[in-house]
Amino acid sequence: MEQIYETSFHKQVKSCENLRTSSCSCSAHPSSPLSINPLHPETSHYLELHDQSPNALLSGGFRGNFPSCSSGFMVGDCVNGHRYLKLMLCGKEWCPVCGEKWSWIHQRRYYRMLPKLKVLAKRKGSIGYLVVTIPKEMRALFANTALLNDFRRYIIDFLKRQGYERGVRVWHWAGEDGKTWKPHLNILIGAGYIDKTKLTGWRELFTSWLELKTGLSVPGESIVIKYRYSKVPAKQRHWLRYVVRPTMRVYQPFYAALLKGYHNIGSWGEWTLRDKANDLSDLERNVCPQCKEPLRWSFDRLDSFQDHWSDFERLGAGYWQRKYALPPPRSVPLVSLPVAPRYIPLEFNFIPD
User: How far apart are CA 23 and CA 12, in angstroms?
Assistant: First the structure.
């Protein structure tokens, strides 16, 4: 069983010998459908930046089975009666739940971009992974969302002119320590081998743009460009998983305020997503995995499903699916009713005797 998120609470759960049985009585492992349902072995948007403190404590009981940063469920319904639950999480990189490797937020972002990765690989035969790191001398200036957006837009426009008409782009904010400000742009494109001479020319162009934009001069090799490519699907998926992972894992008030509400993970170009990746990819695109009809989402409290939790089974990444489909509402034929006659007041003329 793969551990999805692992706080101190869940580490205690993981160490329990009776993890998948209802007979466990340890304090960290309450008997509930959440703790005994195994993950589905085969199986990112709107409120992921919900302004909810990751340190807010939930009450015990049913709510105590969920991460402390969860704020409720998004309930998705299609016209054919299929229903899904999506647990809403804060999505902050420094959250002890959402910031863990392969957390539910990490998985959602991975599955959201997986169909696009397959399109890139299918059309070009290989995936290119480009990383552009801001020079150390300029990083303080790049604690500015407008400048981050300008540089990202410049890089994307440049790649379009080079013939890379679509791709995936993500900023990584910190280094390996999870706290040092080190913005570097990660890009996945459909590409193969690129000559080192060509990459050197790219670096010179990027450096010129940065110097012009910031007014600072830096040595020619200050901006670091790394590029690699692969035709191996497993390697490509590993890169995608690495690219969409959280990096600013240590809470710092300045950067928390700077990045609040910032739309980081995205793509450019036109996409035709015909290939099905899996059920989670469909859900992240607001499509019912069973009938491919659009899903309509509404918000509801955690406690609303306490008495009906046995009706749902886990899909993974904080999604649940109702075990049965309700029949779609029957259309009631309109009945033409006769038009009621208008009331016409009568006038009586009395003739005196």
Answer: 16
